[in-house]
Design goal:
By secondary structure, the chain is of the alpha+beta class. It folds into three domains: about 10-100; about 105-205, Phosphorylase Kinase, domain 1; about 210-455, Aminoglycoside phosphotransferase (APH), C-terminal lobe (Aminoglycoside 3'-phosphotransferase, Chain: A, domain 2, Alpha-Beta Complex). It is built from 13 helices and 17 strands. The chain has helices spanning about 10-20, 80-85, 105-115, 170-180, 215-225, 240-260, 270-285, 295-310, 350, 360-375, 385-405, 415-435, 440-455, and strands at about 40-50, 55-60, 70-75, 90, 95-100, 120, 125, 140, 150-155, 155-160, 190-195, 200-205, 210-215, 265, 315, 330, 335. Strands 6-7-11-12-10-9-8 form a seven-stranded antiparallel sheet. A five-stranded antiparallel sheet has the order 1-2-3-5-4, with helices on one face. Strands 13-16-17 form a three-stranded antiparallel sheet. A hairpin with a 4-residue loop joins β1 and β2 (about 55-60). α7 packs parallel to α12 (about 415-435) and α10 (about 360-375) crosses α12. It is globular and about 70 Å long. Monomer. Pfam families: Mak_N_cap. This is Maltokinase.
Length: about 450
Amino acid sequence: MTSVRLDLTDLPEALTGALPDWLPGQRWFAGKDRPVLGVRTRRLTVLRAADPALVLAVVEVDQGGEPERYQLLLGARPELPDWLETHRICDSSGWGCYDAAHDPELAGELLGLIAADREVEDLRFTPEPGVELSTGLRGRPVGVEQSNTSLVYGSQYILKLFRKLVPGENRDLTLHRVLAAAGCAHIAPPLGSISAPDGTLGMLQSFVEGAADGWAMATASVRDLMAEADLHADEVGGDFAGEARRLGHAVAEVHADLRRAAETRLATPGELTALVAAMHRRLDGMLESVPELAEHAEALRKAFDAAVAAGEPIEVQHVHADLHLGQCLRTPTGWVLIDFEGEPAAPAAERARLRSPLRDVAGMLRSFDYAAHQRLVGHSDDHQLTVRALEWAQRNRTAFCAGYAEVAGDPREHAELLRALELDKAVYEVAYEHANRPEWLPIPLSSIARITSGEEPS
């Protein structure tokens, strides 16, 4: 470490030149499908000026249409060691600037600022009321995230840095606070936050040590079934149905806690009409680019319209809104749900909207279907594997709904709405796979065919 201090004078220009090429290579950058037309620096807040320096930056990215804001955590050193060279972003005034999420020492600075309840310029680093945090811990990034960056501190804390920023308090922080106040047993409690006057930059939580990822557990169960030539899903040692039932129970308890602690009401007729109209618009947007969807269009529209035609009252509330097996962690004591931010691609106003809890149920049903069929990618003509995948999916879908019904009403009693929501999610999956993983496209397309033909009950 030297006594030299970082000079920010040239940094905005350096970032403007480097970021159009650097951003598309980051997993969390949402605009990979469009060229970066320009970048403007909106914030440079020095959190540590001496070598190694730490700067929290907010940049505005122009890709046509409304510019989007992203958070960068910049480290800077006069000389970058070899282990940081791969994370270099640009050079400025003789300093090498890099992604500080990969610097354990600088990541630890953020935890120290939250623990000290510090204010730096107009940024607030704040522990939750009554929380006392350990300090001196170094941070390391979690390597599996897509839309944000999380730093783990020992076995105690995890700090999520929100990369794509939205105005106001982030929904993830809001709902975690609501659920913590309600005594919810199925979340990692919030411990602190980083905020600016116009929004949330980070959320600190308890780290769930020893947790198993729900997707990994489910796909391991599918693998075990596929390896057995003669046994059914309920006869294989890795049967997941018991966990699926417990997970359904946990999701229903989270919904119940949100129902008690936050706003709940009946959807208006106009909201239901708007919901179905949005489903039709999503379908319309995909028909031209994915010709394989055309043969299902009429059946999809009938299913969407049936959700309103049923005429049943629909209760809406705050829900997870992007629930799948990858958002569920199995701990030694039960299931924990994470990432209440909502669908990453959805506008902030849409994420904040109250929804039917069946939206989350539909997301989980789709996730079970994906877990079952992902091993068929490239082997869709294998009849035996297909039969086993369908058996596993239906067994676990049924178990999840049964566990949910132990706490709340049985979601299968609202068949028309649940079917429409699942099909809408499948159309979204068609869009995603078409753009990112064309070889996976048969998974949502085959599901649409089964659901619309009545072969696969919700």
